[in-house]
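Dear colleague,

Thank you for sharing your sequence with our group. We've completed the structure prediction you requested, and as agreed, I am returning the results in plain text so they can be pasted directly into your records. Please verify that the sequence below matches your submission; if there's any discrepancy, let me know and we will rerun it promptly.
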Amino acid sequence: MGRILIPSNGADDWRQFLAKPDLHWAAGYSARTLAHSWEAAQGIPPEVGALMVKAFGLADLLFAVPEHKTALPGGTRESQSDVFALVRHAAGLATYTIEGKVDEPFGPTVGEWSASASPGKVERLDHVCGLLGLATCPSDVRYQLMHRTASALIEAERFDAKLAGMIVHSFSPDGRWFDDFKRFAALLGVAIEPGQVATIVVPSGKSLMIGWATGDQSFRDA
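Please find the predicted structure tokens below.
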């Protein structure tokens, strides 16, 4: 990803950053829904901001980047966050990765992703687990949740931020796939419910929060 960012003039400007714009940019899909939600808020959507405030106090968005890519070791494919947000809190600077969902699943489990793993995959998984302070990575946890959370911590190092967070911004009316998120939280040693946050301290000494925000359903039809 280049280092020069072009300001957005509206939700449709987000489309160009998708890996498959013709496939993923449609009403009812997470990419378009998320773009309209964030653009309508002209900043942090209230349900997302509420979680940030619960974790670290008043939140001031410095900038947000759609489809932001974070490099991971062990290969050339980056972790691509639906939104990356740099936020200033009274407690310090925070880096957030936002994962948008409507009905889409979180992808393969660690076991499925690492089946017949190459040396690069082994290196990548070890690095992700190390960032999160995990001695082992259970096979039933969704790998996407692992690397998206690790991305927030990697970005915190880049921006010299002492706070980080990963938030699932879900537009599913029945909270589809929340059980996968709850399993991931349990791996980190915390309990979680929609609209709540959990915070841990990771080996780097940074405070890491995770949360599940339920978005406004009207944006599904945008």
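Summary note from our side: The chain has one domain: 17-217.

Kind regards,
the structure core
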